[in-house]
């Protein structure tokens, strides 16, 4: 019979004595066999062999996805962007970068109007209608 | 294989070579520590045996995906603690034992365990520990019974050392009061 060697420290709380918790003789000698039997019985095989395979599969999928995305961007970019759109995008990127943290729709509209951008042409009818709700002073800035 | 580090054993396991042999080595290395850790949570030998086996099966299944950025024993400890806590919850629910009755129930159960010989004072400790909120109880058990360093518990429970110290302090106070109250 194995007895736990307990050494609980301080705080004035009761301590487990050497014989408080006991375990059957040879328990730890048998445990690995019992666990392995259970694992084999349950068919709980680790995904060791599929692990590296899965990693390889993920790598291939990632690479393929990257090629497709880059290809799409490379081909569709020049086709879809007019020079004006690119200019607007550059301005907006600069603006977003510059005003990080303070950005809201009102500020964006103000910037849009200030720079004489073709707002209506870029928005749907509903979005243009929404502009009516912005205060007049934003429009006056133009 | 005995002289290999945890990391080397994990690498060997993950390479798919002799995984059973490697796993047996890991079990031999950690089974006693994990056993006593779980025993503090569930108290009886029989329940500890169940929970420990469950934990090892989970470790076996999870080891292929174990990442090297955390220590192996910390990861195994976490699995064992979670397993013990969910076993406890499930068991109390099955037995229709409310949170308020858990301490009394567990003391009665452990007193009936042939592998337990605690005295009355120790039973009071178990009862008092069971009255703690779950998180405080977990911290108290890891610190008081396992004598782990705050830094280790911090990694295990992903909590700051300051918060752990405060929780442990509160837990000890509550347990002292609960034990004194029974006098």
Give the topology:
The complex is a heterodimer of chains A (142) and B (183).
Chain A: E1 2-3, E2 22-23, H1 27-42, H2 50-80, H3 83-98, H4 105-114, H5 119-122, H6 125-131, H7 136-140
Antiparallel strand pairs in A: 1-2
Chain B: H1 6-14, H2 19-42, H3 45-62, H4 72-94, H5 102-111, H6 120-130, H7 134-145, H8 150-157, H9 161-182
What are the key terms here?
heterodimer; A: 142 residues; mainly alpha; two-stranded antiparallel sheet; elongated; disordered N terminus; disordered C terminus; B: 183 residues; Rna Polymerase Sigma Factor, Chain: A; Arc Repressor Mutant, subunit A; 2 domains; 75% helix; 0% strand
Can you walk through the features of this model?
The complex is a heterodimer of chains A (142) and B (183). Chain A has helices at residues 27-42, 50-80, 83-98, 105-114, 119-122, 125-131, 136-140; strands at 2-3, 22-23. With 142 residues, chain A is an all-alpha fold. The longest helix of chain A is centred in the middle third of the chain and has 31 residues, at 50-80. The radius of gyration of chain A is 34 Å and the shape is elongated. The longest helix of chain B is centred in the first third of the chain and has 24 residues, at 19-42. The A-B interface holds A 4, 7-9, 11-14, 16-17, 19-24, 27-28, 31-32, 34-36, 38-39, 42, 44, 46-49, 51-52 and B 13-16, 19-20, 23-24, 27-28, 31-32, 35-36, 39, 45, 49, 52-53, 56-57, 60-61, 63-65, 115-119, 121-122, 124-125, 144-145, 147, 172, 175-176, 179.
Please describe the biggest sheet of chain A, giving its number of strands, its sense, and whether it closes into a barrel. Answer: 2 strands, antiparallel
Largest sheet descriptor of chain B = none
- Give the DSSP E fraction of chain B (strand runs of 2 or more residues): under 5%
Query: What are the secondary-structure elements of chain B, in order, as H or E?
Result: HHHHHHHHH
Based on CA atoms alone, the radius of gyration of chain A comes out at 34 Å
CATH-scheme architecture of the largest domain in chain B: Orthogonal Bundle
* CATH topology group of the largest domain in chain B: Rna Polymerase Sigma Factor, Chain: A
Could you list the spans of chain B in which at least 5 consecutive residues all have pLDDT below 50?
Answer: none
The tally of structural domains of chain B comes to 2
